[in-house]
Amino acid sequence: MYIAVIGSGEPDKENEIIAYELGRLIAEKKATLICGGLGGVMDAACKGASEAGGTCVGILPGGNRASSSKYLTVALPTGLGEARNTIIARSADVVIAVGGEFGTLSEIGFALKAQKPVIGINTWHLFKDDKESMSLARAKDAQEAIELAINSATE
């Protein structure tokens, strides 16, 4: 199973802790972590997964590995900038968003368009016709997010 963790490159402390815990839990479930490969939420998730013996794949926006997280197992420079967000969304079986800015919002949109399950913690709320969309599942913490991810991938 491949689980993407997406979120801000400059998260608050709470979201950084959540991302670390997600990475650790992903590794413990023997899943592969996919992320954007840089700092913030991405780095924290990779650190958690790496310390738990997991595999971390970073889909980098630039043309080299120079600025990538030191916790990545595989660093893939794309030279695509934010267009690499589509690769992250389509490469994962499930996407978990932690906080995030507009880049995270684009990844959520790409994942939903690709009919991938998306789980959010402290992240965007999506509305259509003045009603909140239920296409983005909500989790209160990392443990609940992983349980939702595992369950959604087996459905």
What is this entry, summarized?
By secondary structure, the chain is of the alpha/beta class. The protein has 5 helices and 9 strands.
Features:
single chain, 155 residues, alpha/beta, Rossmann fold, seven-stranded parallel beta sheet, two-stranded antiparallel ribbon, 5 helices, 9 strands
What number of structural domains do the residues give?
1
Give the N-terminus to C-terminus distance in angstroms. 13 Å
Give the helix tally. 5
Query: What is the name of the CATH architecture?
Result: 3-Layer(aba) Sandwich
Number of strands: 9
CATH topology: Rossmann fold
The SSE string, one letter per element, is EHEHEEHEHEEEEH
Helix content: 25-40%
- Largest sheet composition: 7 strands, parallel
Strand order of the largest sheet: 4-3-2-1-5-6-9
* Global shape: globular
Q: Flag low-confidence runs.
A: none
Description:
- With 155 residues, the chain is an alpha/beta fold.
- It has one domain (2-154): Rossmann fold (3-Layer(aba) Sandwich), CATH 3.40.50.450.
- Helices cover 39% and strands 23% of the residues.
- It contains five helices and nine strands, in the order βαβαββαβαββββα.
- The protein has helices at residues 13-28, 41-51, 84-91, 102-113, 142-154; strands at 2-7, 32-35, 55-60, 74-77, 94-98, 118-121, 127-128, 131-132, 136-138.
- The strands form two sheets. A seven-stranded parallel β-sheet has the order 4-3-2-1-5-6-9, with helices on both faces. The protein has a two-stranded antiparallel ribbon with strand order 7-8.
- β1, α1 and β2 form a beta-alpha-beta unit.
- The radius of gyration is 14 Å and the shape is globular.
- The chain starts with a strand and ends with a helix.
- The mean pLDDT is 96.
